[in-house]
Design brief:
binds tetrahydrodeoxyuridine; 5-stranded mixed sheet; Cytidine Deaminase, domain 2; 4 helices
């Protein structure tokens, strides 16, 4: 695992804090995310619904918040799955496929995603050959 530098560690701490705002009464799996654009942090957490399919992941909430803040080029995204058991497979902390497609849309070309407890990735690592237009 590539060690995070001080600025990235701060982002991961912010993502863990964002997870405490999750609305996750059904899964009890809280996730927090921070999207950085123009040096500014935009927070997200997962927001579930009694109609399960309406659930929004933390990553997408953070990225959409950046768009709502007038930004289209996300340079960094930190994600923290604070309820993932410590010895669970690392896949339980990785972003889902839908969020990866949204990253492909909104990430700056050299953007990095930091996954708490796992490491750092580019969009090419996470979604090679992503659909785009
Ligand atoms: N979840 C996220 O917020 N991000 C992901 O990348 C994967 C899953 C949320 C959705 C749901 O609220 C809970 O985690 C359990 O799947």
């Amino acid at each position: 695992m590539v060690e995070a530098n001080a600025a990235d560690l701060e982002l991961l701490v912010l993502a863990r804090e964002a997870a405490t705002r999750a609305h996750a009464p059904y899964s009890r799996f809280r996730v927090g995310a921070v999207a950085v654009a123009d040096g500014q942090p935009f927070l997200g957490c997962n927001v579930e619904n009694a109609s399960f399919g309406l659930t929004a992941c933390a990553e997408r909430v953070a990225m959409w918040s950046a768009v709502a803040g007038g930004r289209r080029q996300i340079s960094r995204l930190a994600v923290a799955c604070v309820d993932a058991p410590p010895h669970a497979p690392t896949t339980s902390r990785m972003p889902c496929g839908a969020c990866r497609q949204v990253m492909a849309e909104l990430f700056a070309p050299d953007a990095i995603i930091l996954v708490d407890g796992v490491g750092q990735f580019t969009i090419a690592d996470l979604l090679p050959g992503a659909f785009g237009r």
